[in-house]
Amino acid sequence: MKNTTTIGFIGAGNMAYAIISGLINTGISTQQIKISDTSESLLSSRKAEFGLDTFTDNAQLALQCEVIVLAVKPQALSTVCRQLQGAISANTLIISIAAGVRSGDINRWLGDKNAIVRVMPNTPALLNQGISGLFANEFANEAQQQMATDILSSVGECLWVAEEGLLDAVTALSGSGPAYFFLMIESMTKAGAALGLDEKTAERLSIKTALGASMMASAGEDSACELRKKVTSKNGTTQAAIESFQDQDFEVVVTHAMRAAFDRAGKLAIELSDLD
Question: Can you give the pTM of this predicted structure?
Answer without folding.
Answer: 0.91
